[in-house]
Each structure stands twice: as C-alpha cells, then as structure tokens.
Amino acid sequence: MQQGKYFSLLRRNMHSCTFNRSRLLAFLLVVGVTLVIYYLLPNTLPDSTRSVEPLRAYDMTTTNKLIVTVNVTLKKSSNQIQVFYRETLPLQKSRESHPPSLEVLLLHGQAFDSKTWEGLGTLSLLAEKGYRAVAMDLPGYGNTPLLDIDKVDKDRADFLLAFLNAVGLQAPVVVSPSMSGHFSIPFLMFYAQRLKGFVPIAPAGTNLYNADQYQKIQTPTLIVFGELDTNLGVRSLKNLKYLPNHSVFKIPTARHACYLDEPHLFHTTLLDFLTKF
Ligand SMILES: *[C@@H]1O[C@H](CO)[C@@H](O)[C@H](O)[C@H]1NC(C)=O
Ligand SMILES: *[C@@H]1O[C@H](CO)[C@@H](O)[C@H](O)[C@H]1NC(C)=O
Predict the structure, then answer these.
(1) Least enclosed by CB within 10 Å: which of 1, 12, 39, 227?
(2) Tens digits of per-residue pLDDT, 51-103?
(3) Closest-lying ligand 2 atom to the alpha carbon of residue 276
(4) Is 114 among the domain residues?
(5) Is 247 an annotated catalytic residue?
C-alpha cells in the first residue's frame, strides 16, 4: 500500500515532468517560428507598382533600401531597356527636419556601378539626411544591359531624361564621376532645367562643348577631383570652370576615384553642398 502510493506519486511526478518538457519544447518552437517570420518578413514585403527584383537589402531600422529595375523606353528608337537601380528613401523622422523634395542621382565610373555607392555608404547617408537617393547602373554596367546609344551625345542625354521620368526624379542633384560624364555633360547641356545641382567628379567628355556653351548654364556646380588626378581631373576642370556658378573642391592626396580614396571628406563636402538647396 505504502509502496504503491510511492510509485504512483513518482509516476505522477515523471508525468508532470515530461508534460513540462513538451510545454517548454512547444514554447521554444513558437518563439523560434516567430523569430524566423520576423526576420524573413521584411524581405517578402512587396514594393510599389514598379517591377521589383528581390529586395536583398531592406533594413527597416536605418533606411529604406530598394533594389529595383525600371523599363525605360527611348523615344527616338522606341528601344526599351530594363535599367537597374538602387534607391534609399528618407526615414519618416528625418523627412520632417529636411524638405523631402531634394533628390540625388548617383552615376558611376567605368570600373564601377550602383553597388559602389551602396558599399561606400553614400546611399544610406543621403537617406539618413532626409534625401531621396537613386544610384543607377548605366547601360552595359552592373545589371543594366548594353544599349546602342553611345554615338550621339543628345541620345545619351535623352536616355538619362527617360530614366528620370521613369523613376519620377523631378530635378535631382546629379553626382557624376569619370565615364558617366558622357551622359551627364550632354544632359547638362540639353536639359539643365532638370538639374537642381551638378557634382562632376573628373568627368569624361567635357571637351565636347566650348566655353560659350558652359557659360550659359546656371546650374549650381561643385567640381570635385583628386589632387593626384593630373589627367581627367585637370582636363575636366579646364572646361567646367566656365560654368558661372561653380565651386571647386580638390581632395588632397586623392587619385582619380577620389571619393573612394577619401570617402569621409567627399561625403562631408557633398552634404555641405546639398544643404544649400
Ligand atoms: C519590363 O520589361 C520586361 C521585359 O520586356 C517585362 O517582363 C516586365 O514586365 C516589364 N516591367 C514593367 C514594369 O513594365
Ligand atoms: C549659386 O549656387 C548656389 C548653390 O550652390 C545658390 O545658393 C546661389 O543662389 C547660386 N547663385 C547664382 C547667382 O545663381
């Protein structure tokens, strides 16, 4: 009798022990599933109406990063091209302290693409400051296919205009290093009214136009180049200095890709230029 009571008590304890363990397992399972859903959910949220690639970088805690493609149709040839770009949108909080209207379009040099500006932190920095920042892959670079428009400068300006219209950039400040000058300089000549500001960084193609043509452009311009860039840096300055409203920032001891050599100096100067609008 005594013994039976003891065993039944033991059994009950064992039973409640396994019961507690399975409750604990169920609890851990629920917590685990919740965490997995929590971390996966931002990646599965759909973007607006644009055609969207997988949102590989969507960080809700700092900036709203989007990785997007947009179809750009060229009027002249009716050629359609799917242009890849990265975009950061200002946070709600910083939207209040800055006018959200300022847009920045980041172009890139020959050895680079839109990822360069993500890696350098420029995209998220601009979003932090309350700006809408777009970094595009030019035709034949990054994830944008090659487009046969390289012959005529007006066609390259038209391509950039079609991109601006497709992604809804009204009048961005355009940051244009090196090779991208083949696009931004014609754009400056043909569509200066769609440029709020211009930040050429030792751009190519400035010699297509003469001093008279530069003198007619009122766009506020920040000319940036590296002190050690004695080739394109110096040659582009010779033409760009005819722009009536310009300032020059020569980055000490920096080479052609001066924004990569001195990202902090470059960012500080760029942000300072942007506060003037
Ligand atoms: C863009 O073009 C591609 C291929 O032509 C097509 O599959 C896609 O649906 C288009 N996207 C949009 C948003 O029109
Ligand atoms: C020159 O550009 C600055 C912005 O960098 C602007 O504030 C200023 O009004 C411009 N000056 C003229 C004469 O347009």
Answers:
(1) 1
(2) 333 333 334 344 578 888 999 988 878 888 999 999 998 865 544 554 557 99
(3) 4
(4) yes
(5) no
68, 51 Cβ separation under 8 angstroms? yes
108, 182, 246, 256: which one is catalytic?
256
Is 16 near ligand 2, meaning CB less than 6 Å away? no
User: Which contiguous run of DSSP H or E holds residue 72?
Assistant: strand 64-73
Whether residues 137 and 38 fall in one domain: no
Whether 198 and 126 map to the same domain: the answer is: yes
Residue 57 neighbours by CB under 8 Å, 6+ apart: 65, 67, 118
131 with 23, same domain: the answer is no
- Asked if residue 55 belongs to a domain, the reply is no
Per-residue pLDDT tens digits for 128-161: 898 999 999 999 999 999 987 657 899 999 999 9
Instruction: Report the atom number in ligand 2 closest to the C-alpha of 245.
Output: 1
Range of the domain at 266: 60-274
User: Which residues have any ligand 1 atom within 6 Å of their CB?
Assistant: 51, 71, 82
Asked whether residue 260 is assigned to any structural domain, the reply reads: yes
Ligand 1: which residue has its CA nearest to atom 12?
Answer: 51
Q: What is residue 201's three-state secondary structure?
A: strand
Distance 217 CA to ligand 2 centre (A): 12
Ligand in nearest proximity to the CA of 82: 1
Q: pTM for this one?
A: 0.77
Q: Is residue 200 part of a domain?
A: yes
* Binding site membership of 247 for ligand 2 (Cβ less than 6 Å): no
- Determine the Cα–Cα distance for residues 166 and 69; give it in Å rounded to an integer: 10
Question: Is 178 an active-site residue?
Answer: yes
In the set 229, 236, 246, 261, the catalytic residue is 229
Active site residue 59: no
Are 224 and 96 within one domain?
A: yes
Which letter does DSSP use for residue 74 in this model? -
Are residues 193 and 91 located together in one domain of the fold? Answer: yes
Same-domain pairing of 267 and 183: yes
Please give the Cα distance from 182 to 154 (Å, whole number).
10
